Amino acid sequence: MLLKDMYTPDVVCCLPGTHVMAAAALMRQRHVGDLVVIDNLEDTRVPLGVVTDRDLVVEVMAKGLDPAKVTVGSLLNKPVVIAEESEDTSRVIERMRLHGIRRVPVVDQRGAVVGIVTLNDLLNVVVGEAHALLETTVRGQRQEQHSRR
């Protein structure tokens, strides 16, 4: 399956200069656990990384840092791992495994963010495909039983 057929297009973005306090408020307001950090909100929208609610807790709150002073840009891991919307999900799964990440920004052919794919999104696809395979086996067995009566 191609990413363009399954990624989440309604991605919530912010700029690297966004303070952690504002990022947390945005996550709460939009009911998400991550933000894609991009270079600008208007033009190119190139993803610079992903910041998660866990990043805010582990890297800021647990260290006693002031969330009103720390920016999300300081929390980003390098290099940023992205996926193109025309890629097959199997390639993205391998990239996520290799880098140990659970969320990947999805970009179009210009490199602009168009969505996000998460481990849960991919698990839903894989489980759905496994269920279809299982159903094929069960249906075949039923047909065989029915034809031999």
Number of domains: 1
**Shape verdict:** elongated
**CATH H level, superfamily name:** CBS-domain
Work out the helicity level.
40-55%
Averaged pLDDT: 92
CATH architecture: Roll
What's the arrangement of strands in the largest beta sheet? 1-2-3
List keywords for this structure.
4 helices; alpha/beta; 149 residues; CBS-domain; 3-stranded mixed beta sheet; 17% strand
Explain what the structure shows.
This protein has 149 residues and is of the alpha/beta class. The protein has one domain (3-118): CBS-domain, CATH 3.10.580. The protein has four helices and six strands, in the order βαββαβαββα. It has helices at 20-30, 53-61, 89-99, 119-147; strands spanning 13-14, 34-38, 47-52, 83-84, 103-107, 113-118. It is elongated, with a radius of gyration of 20 Å. 23% of the residues are buried.
